[in-house]
Amino acid sequence: MHDRLTQSMRASHLLALLFVLAALGLAAMGAATGDTFYLRLGTEALIFAGLALSVDLLLGYSGALSLGQALYFGIGAYVSALTLMKLPSFWLAMAAAFLATLIASIIGGLIANRVRGVYFALITFGLAQVMAKVVYNTRELGASDGMIGIPVIEIGFGPFSVSAGSPVGFFLIVLAVIMGLYALTAYLLDTPFGRVLTALKANEKRVPFLGYSVWRARMAAYVLAGVIAGLSGALYPMLRGFVSPELMFFATSGNAVISVVLGGVGTLIGAIYGSVLLVILKSIIGSWTEHHLIVIGLLFMLCVMFLPRGLVGVVRPAIETWLSRRRPAPVAAADPADLPAIIAETARTSR
Amino acid sequence: MKTAAITMFAAGLLAATALSGSAFAQSGPIKIGVVTPLSGTYTPIGQQVRWGLELAAKEINAAGGIAGRQVNLLFEDEEANPSVAVQKAEKLFQVEKVDFLTGTVNSGSTLAVAQLAERNAKLAATTVSFADSITTDKCSPNMFRVNARAEQQSVALAAWLAKEKPKAKVYYLGPDYEMGRSTVAAFKSSAEKGGAQSGGEVFAPLDSKDYTQYFGQIRATRPQVLYTSVAGNDTVRLLTQLQDFGLLSGLTVVGASGTVTSQNITAIGAAAEGFATGVGYSPQIDSPANKTFVAAFRAANKTDPDLYGADSYGLLFAYKAAVEKAGSTETDKVREALRGLSWQTPQGTKTIRAGDHQAMQPMYVVRVTKGKFDIIDNVSSENAIGPDACTRF
Questions:
Q1: In this structure, what DSSP letter does residue A247 have?
Q2: Does the keyword Cell inner membrane apply (chain B) (predicted)?
């Protein structure tokens, strides 16, 4: 039952559990000291972690580098902002953002999935830039100034309600949403659909011979990633009370890619760790020196040179070994980065 | 477990920083947060803001501070991105507990920071953003603006134009994006109030290489005045191409304050001659206060101040006057003191209008003569300010 992918995902889940425990500990500490800034910074980091998660789904599983994932993040943010200004309901805003990004990512996917590799990266980049320019020049959407005046909402769960203005309350809600998205993605990747995605990354030409539609799998991954980015984006205006076209700019997409590489491509939880680390680093280094971009750039380069599998990529094999020793698995633990090699090998032997 | 260790480290770090940011309210130095672009495209503007504020803080501290308390400036880089600006401003408000905040450059950042200041019950001011919305339909009780807004610039220029070329036929050429269209619309309405006629308008894409395709239309309407709000290298191409086609003779070219600047004036060369615009500041202002300021600024930074440096310099003196008048740094008291406050700046007397928190100031019309801007006219603050359109307070 436990193949290599399941094995490594179980290690990711353990890291996810640690992440949630650490986040809960931090939230408790923040609440005890009456902190607001660090809790809200953490909330923002989690929101951008959702975006990074969607990038990792594409890059780490279907093997498609999206340089314009901020497009769906931005659409989610704008739709949520517009909804909240009409009717301050959390659920309605999330539903609206879901629908809007679903439609947008189907359209975007139809365009971007006509091509592969570097062309896919360029098309996604272009789509996001075009949309950002459209928003930048549309007066009804606030144009270059963005939109302010998004109310601080009450988020209702049956008889309970939490204010988005409460640092701890909103932190926990965002944590629940993002970890929910993580769990959903991890579940889907564990289904046959997820295996087809992994196969796509390893040997796309072979997939149709096994009876699967490449286009359909790529499309499904793209739409799923778009919706995840959109739902994360929908949380942004609830936290900050405004949206601006900069949310769709390349800087946002680029940061998400950096987070994924920092945390570990193809690990899912690595995207979340990477994003939190990047936001914290940017905040600390940015206050320390105005040359923070150089420092972040150097750290990124060092990470690519010495930790090419990212932070989680480094620790995960150890956890896998530990897990397999606790419960012996039929197959020895292997890193998913070796998967292409394994599949290629199977392909060779079956020839 | 390396990642867990890192998380624990980050957690410890967060807790330590959170605890160290305790408040020193009403004693010790007055902290002023500056959220301004220190990296990226807007760095030159952020640099002027920084120099202006640092010079003012140095002078205020040397003279005994604000109500006996020293001024301490805390800088953060906003990268000209509202999302970053809000995050940094929140850090300054909540962790550093600053008493006052300034520095935002692009209007989106200023508007977002205004809302944040409101939610944190603190005051903020901009010395750079000129979008009218900041002190009109999106005005905030916690935001002040001490620089001239777009309408003041166009009103000053239109007033000069009405005097210089009464009932002139004006042709408008703007860059084809939201800001370009709104600057043309704003100047057009000011000019038409002064009796100007419209000869037509055209919008060229940003970064156009060839403007000659529009010259036929311009020739056909025979305008006396051409208004343009293109900027940077677009201005270089537009003006030199106009000159090559011999269209500049008998035509007065006027424009937005960012159309011809010290950065592109040499590249435009002789084609810039006669270009006029409305500004809130010029280092040539002939007053003792400005001469002292320019000399001190040049000594400190080896360059001339521009309007951003001058407006930022002036802001600290407004804050000083307000805190001393209020006898406290509390938000409500300082807000009351700032409303209607008149104070001296290198640009002359400025007054903050209580109704919309917009500074009223004398405006200047400058024209390029022999490759340099000369002040040719000024418009009194009352005539340049325009109606109070803020309804929130």
A1: G
A2: no
The answer to whether A105 touches A220, Cβ cutoff 8 Å, is no
Tell me how many residue pairs between chain A and chain B have CB atoms under 8 A apart. 127
Provide the CA B157 distance to its chain's centre, in angstroms. 17
Whether A284 and chain B come into contact, CB under 8 Å, resolves to: yes
Task: State the CATH class of domain B7-148+285-361.
Answer: alpha beta
In chain A, what is the straight-line distance between the N-terminal and C-terminal CA atoms, in Å?
Answer: 25
A39 pLDDT exceeds 90?
A: yes
Q: Do B3 and A247 touch (CB under 8 A)?
A: no
How many residues belong to chain B?
Answer: 393
B151-279 CATH, one of 3.90.1280.10, 3.10.310.20, 2.60.120.200, 3.40.50.2300: 3.40.50.2300
Tokens encoding A351: 């020839």
Q: What gap in Å lies between CA A328 and CA A39, rounded to an integer?
A: 40
CA atoms within 13 A on the CB side of B285: 29
Strands B123-126, B143-145: pairing is parallel
Enter the CATH code of domain A4-338: 1.10.3470
How far apart CA B132 and CA B151 sit, in angstroms, is 7
Task: Report pLDDT for B183.
Answer: 86
Residues 125-144 of A with CB under 8 A from B: 136-139, 143-144
What SS3 state is found at B123? strand
Quote ipTM for the complex.
Answer: 0.85
Three-state secondary-structure class, residue B145: strand
- CB-based contact A26 B138, cutoff 8 Å: no
Of the candidates A59, A66, A56, the one whose C-alpha atom is nearest the C-alpha of residue A112 is: A66
The CA distance from A259 to A265, in Å, is: 9
Q: Which residues of A touch B79 (CB under 8 A)?
A: 251
Which of B39, B91, B94 is facing A283, going by the closest CB pair?
B91
Digit-coded pLDDT (tens) for B42-53: 888 899 999 999
Task: Calculate the alpha carbon distances from A103 to A106, A224, A307, B84 in Å.
Answer: 5, 11, 37, 29
Residue with tokens 């920084």: B50
Domain boundaries, chain A: 4-338
In this structure, of A40-49, A90-99, A153-162, B83-92, the range with the lowest mean pLDDT score is A153-162
User: Please, what is the average pLDDT of chain B?
Assistant: 88
Mean pLDDT, residues A91-100 = 96
Torsion of CA B212, B217, B220, B226, to 10 degrees: -80
What would the DSSP string read from start to end of B186-249? HHHHHHHHTT-EEEEEEEEPTT-S--GGGHHHHHHH--SEEEE---THHHHHHHHHHHHTT--T
Q: Which residues are CB-neighbours of B9 under 8 A, at least 6 positions away? A: none
> Residues 198..227 of A with a Cβ closer than 8 Å to B: which?
none
